Amino acid sequence: MRKLDFPAAALILGMVLGDGLERALRQSLMMSQGDITILAARPISGTLLFFRRRDFVSAGGPQSALLEESKLLSGKAEDDRCR
């Protein structure tokens, strides 16, 4: 976690909330008979999904995350931080 500069709080939140969130997602999908649009059917959930997608895209998406991880693993990011 320290090598990749990953915060411990995110890991703890994932462990505490992950099981309940997964159970709620599974229950919602069973109630909607597998229709994923139920996740954006209400205004508040649609708004939250919109902002999450916008933040993900503005951060560079998955390609940016993979590039940063490869820099960290190769040690190049440490050199950049020292400058």
Any key phrases for this structure?
4 helices; 73% helix; mainly alpha; single chain; 2 domains; 83 residues
In short:
The protein is mainly alpha-helical and 83 residues long.
Characterization of the model:
This protein is mainly α and 83 residues long. It is 73% helix and 0% strand. The chain folds into two domains: 1-36, no CATH class; 42-83. It has four helices and no strands. The radius of gyration is 18 Å and the shape is extended.
Our count of helices gives 4
Q: Helical content, roughly?
A: over 70%
Assembly annotation: single chain
Instruction: Tell me the radius of gyration.
Output: 18 Å
Poorly predicted ranges:
none
Overall pLDDT: 77
Q: What is the 3D shape?
A: extended
Succession of helices and strands = HHHH
N-C termini distance: 23 Å
How many strands in all? 0
Strand-helix topology:
Blueprint: H1 8-31, H2 43-58, H3 61-74, H4 76-82
